[in-house]
Amino acid sequence: MRNLYIDVRIGNVIAVLKPLFWLLLIEVLVFTILALIPQGHDVYVYLLEEGFWTNAVPIILLFIALIFLSCSSGLGGEMILSQSETIWLPKLPEDVPENPDQTNAGYGSFRSWLVTFLWYFPYLSFLLGLYKVIAFQKKTDSEGFGNTAIFLTLFFTGLGLWLIFKVRKGIWRYIRYRLEKIHNDDKKASEFIQDFRGAGKVKLKDFKPLINILCVFFTFSVLLFIVFAFLPSNFYYFIGAAALMVFGLGTWTNVYVAVELIDKLYKVNPFSFTFNGRGYSLSLKMVILIWVLICSYFNSDHPVNALDGAPLKPNVTLAENLDRYHRTFKPDGTKIPIVFVAVDGGASRTGLFGAMMLSVLQDNLPDFKNHVFAYSDISGGTLGANVFYALSRDGLVTQDKSDTCFTEQSRRFFKRDFLAPVIGTFLFGDALGYFWPGYIPKFDRGLALETEWQAAWKDIMPFLKNKTENAMELGVKRMLEISDTAKYFKPVMFINSHEVETGKRAIYSNVLMNDTVFSAISNLNNRVNRDLPFSSAILFSARFPLISPSVAVEVDGIKRHYVDGGYFESSGTLTLYEALLSLEDSLKSNMYDVFVIHLDGSEELAKDANKGNRFLNEPLDIITGAISDQSGHTEFATENLKNYVSRRYKKSHFITLKVGDKLKDVPVNWVLSNGAINRVLKRCKDIWATPDLDELKQAIGFSLPINKQSQRLRR
């Protein structure tokens, strides 16, 4: 009998959890985002920096969103349980009499605990993440986290939990009051509420006050969809990524609860049909799924954002551009320094590091930008490299003041919250687009990210010589094209992407690529038949689903999709290696001093950090192997380029500069806090002071201190 009792308890737990599967999945997602991943932690830091000292709107909206999500989760869970058979009835032996107390074993307490969990868990997840962030900031002595921030955080802790408690209590007090009015019987109202919290189904027609409250939540969710879906993308910046994420999860929770209740309430529905004499009924969830699949077939899958002009069609080879590079320097008998740059992928982490490190070099070596011959970049590194390139092209008003140097402009660009428009468009716009068979540009989160890059460039335009043209909005043809008649030099740009259908590397460039050297690639210049905004060309390399969608390019009825270049390898060194191979004959002479700079965005890990799979190794080996494949490609490409440069030129001329910080310090994210930005800036300045760059400094014309010159002579 004891074993039967235990079986009943376990069965009742499973019976209660089963109807809440999707709701609990949302709770797991909430906990992961708000309490676990470093991206969520740095968003908190960003909010605390901005919210407590300059703009309190995002953190207040986040507070409201958390209350909304907690109430939606708790009330939705109670409604779903009230419409489900949530008690397990075991088949008893004939000689064992039925015992209601035993059958209900563990049910009441577990249901009560679970409902309370659903009401408070989202807010508690937020608090856990927030406390971890404050502990980390205090430990690292970061700016802006004094006693005021801690006091306000504790205040929000108490206020939030108190509000959730009061809302929950107020809802049920209102329901009880309305039931008493309807039935004119306090005892009957108590019985209805007791039945609602019992194991069996209840008739919702007896709970009209509760239906009214659910309608209020659902109506508010619909209003949020309408407002946020059609809101201009630059407004997302003022709401904040965190509030948008939580509001989005709350609205979709209410939509799910509404669909679930419709399925349970209407057994005979418009989607019933008869086949071979048997009756069938499709649930609303199944109908929605079928409709989404149909829309997916007809939808144009986020087409590339194109302009009306002619496309970028390179007609200059690498060797021909090298001749132009050579002609820009006066022959004086010394070797001409020539720099090749590869920048890792990693959203704003490597985007900031790439732009900031190149800017530090430029601010200290004013001629540095003129010696960069080629960039090969991936994902966020593509954004960083092209921000530096555009700064070099447009020029600064002056470099005498601290707020007009290259470093400060890179900082100003990446200080903007690029994540908010992506999250807002994804949860409220793009998600609705899945239910429509046509493409709606307003709902494209890729376009939202581009628009935010353009807005970030507008922030730095007052400090540029070119104050009239937004580089991110200009056509890529104008920004990158190397004319065969032009006598001036323009650097080579390799924007690395990945073709989904073939698995090939895809490259968009401003030079002709030799098929015998750049082997087995998809040449994007041959597939794109119109001009693109500069921001769209950059985004070809930085589309990492689900954050930004794949882009579709269709030519002659053949559609191809392109995603983040880091799917193949995330350093850009493979393309740079092929470029050096292509120039091997041209670089044979003693005219050039070749340097390769690899801006490495990986975190510093101990050699024994990966101890291997110890649990469920067979299924995990499949997943881990697929993920690690990219890391293996990256390491191979980097080492291959390093060995080539070491053999052919000089070992010290392959310069690896690492951002170094752990992911929790500078996360892979499209928004970075001031603390993270300051850590990257400090790292770049520290790198500048290391001897790794001495040969590059001397080659480009930097005067080394006397003691370093004497050390070099002794070597």
Describe the structure.
The model is unreliable at 1-5, 88-94, 98-106 and 703-715 (pLDDT under 50). The chain is α/β, with parallel strands linked by helices and 715 residues long. The longest helix has 37 residues, at 147-183. It has helices at residues 2-17, 21-36, 38-53, 57-82, 100-103, 107-139, 147-183, 186-196, 208-229, 233-239, 241-265, 284-298, 318-327, 347-364, 380-394, 406-414, 419-433, 445-460, 476-480, 524-527, 534-539, 573-582, 617-648, 674-688, 694-700, 706-714, and strands at 272-275, 278-281, 336-343, 372-378, 492-499, 505-509, 521-523, 551-555, 558-564, 592-603, 654-660. The chain is built from 26 helices and eleven strands. It folds into two domains: 2-93 and 119-272 and 279-298, no CATH class; 318-422 and 452-604 and 623-714, Cytosolic phospholipase A2 catalytic domain (3-Layer(aba) Sandwich), CATH 3.40.1090. Strands 3, 4, 5, 6, 7, 8, 9, 10 and 11 form a nine-stranded mixed β-sheet that branches. The protein has a two-stranded antiparallel sheet with strand order 1-2. The chain crosses the membrane at residues 20-37, 57-81, 113-134, 146-165, 210-231, 237-259, 418-436. It comes from Dyadobacter pollutisoli. Keywords: Membrane, Transmembrane, Transmembrane helix. This is PNPLA domain-containing protein.
